[in-house]
Each structure stands twice: as C-alpha cells, then as structure tokens.
Amino acid sequence: MNTSPIPEFEVDPAVGLLGTNDADRRVQDALADLFAGDGTIYLVSGYFTYQGYLAIRDDIVSFLERSRDNVLISVVGPASDQFSARIARDLWALDDREQVRLYKRPRGLHAKLYIRDGPNPRCIVGSANITQVAFEYNVELGLEMTRESRDHPDLRPFFDWAEGIVATAEPLGRRDLLGPVQIASSVVNWSNKARLLPSRNVALRVVPALLLLVGLAGLFRLV
C-alpha cells in the first residue's frame, strides 16, 4: 500500500480561473481590470456582439480617456454573425486621438485572447467571447494571469501571438460594415466549413443553416 504523502502545490496568486455568474471570478470582471491598467490592449474575439460591448464600454471609455498613450487594438471576424457594426461605429466616434485600431481576420476567427502590456501586464485566455451570453449564461472557462513584465516567459508567447495575428490581419474599413458585405462574409465562412464535413451532413444540416443565416443575418447585426 502506497503511503507516500500527497504533494502540496504552491498556488500562484497571480494566476486564477474565470467563469460566468456562478464563478468566484467572472470574465467580465477580469476584463474590467484589464482596462483599469495603462498600456496597449489587444482584444481578439471570435464573436463580439453589441450587448457584450456595452457591458465593458464604460471601462473602454475610461481607458482611452485616462491617457493619450493608451491604445486599443481589436481583431474581429467581420461576418454578420460574428461582429456588430455598431461597435466599430461607436469606437470610431470615441476615438478623437487615434487610439483605436480595428482589424479583420475573415477566415474562421475563433480565438479568444485579451491582453495588456504596460505596468503589471495582464493576460486573459479561455473560451469566452465578448458577448452577453458568454458573460451571463454559458459555462465558460478562462485563465487570468499577471506578471511583472510582458517579457516574462509566461506572457511573451501570448504577446508574440497577438502581434502576429495583427501583422497578418487587414484594417477593418467602413465598407466591411455594410450589411450585404457582412452577410456575404458569413456565407463564405459557413461554405468553407461545409467543405470539411461529410456530404450527408452538409445536405441535412449546413445547407438549411445557410438559408436560415441569410434570412436572419440582419438580426445578428443588432446584437
């Protein structure tokens, strides 16, 4: 019989788990703390809805107004079911000092990374998009980490990844926010995904979903 003592592990106070309303630490609260610091913030979210944006809008406004040197860089999927045009229009209206930079990655963006450099850099990675559903309903799991420098080996790979995806992205333009353009982007995304599925699944599931998407895409632009 093995009577060896169970090893004790030291808990890192600068690393914590995130969840939804039933968690000890909510994703939305972690995002608020992200914007409470100064520096450059990268938001990479596969789905970024207007209601999710409104939940953190005050934090974003405070971040931009607090220092002219604070910068917000966001990478989004420009499809109608992924991103609300109202977010871009509101951010551009707020941005009178060229502090906001929006980029698009049309090819199936599904990543979720929220990270800030500057003093006490902070990183949030996990399953939660910036949506009200993620903040209040879904079972989400995320990790929040702070370190003393962005060059710390725990954070450096995340900053390198964020900078890399921005380097390969394209600036989000006003044309990208036109309804037909966003809907077309959704159709292209779902069509490309369908090519990776068995033909029977495409016929039974994807084709009806595409038709429904085209019919309801306008609703996604409102949330």
UniProtKB/TrEMBL annotation:
Keyword entries, A-Z: Endonuclease, Hydrolase, Nuclease
Carries keyword Hydrolase?
Answer: yes
UniProt domain PLD phosphodiesterase: residue ranges: 105-134
The record ties this protein, via PROSITE patterns, to: PLD (PS50035)
Q: Which Pfam families match?
A: PLDc_2
GO molecular function terms here? endonuclease activity
> Does Hydrolase appear among the keywords?
yes
Name this protein carries in UniProt: NgoFVII family restriction endonuclease
The organism of origin for this protein:
Natronorubrum halalkaliphilum
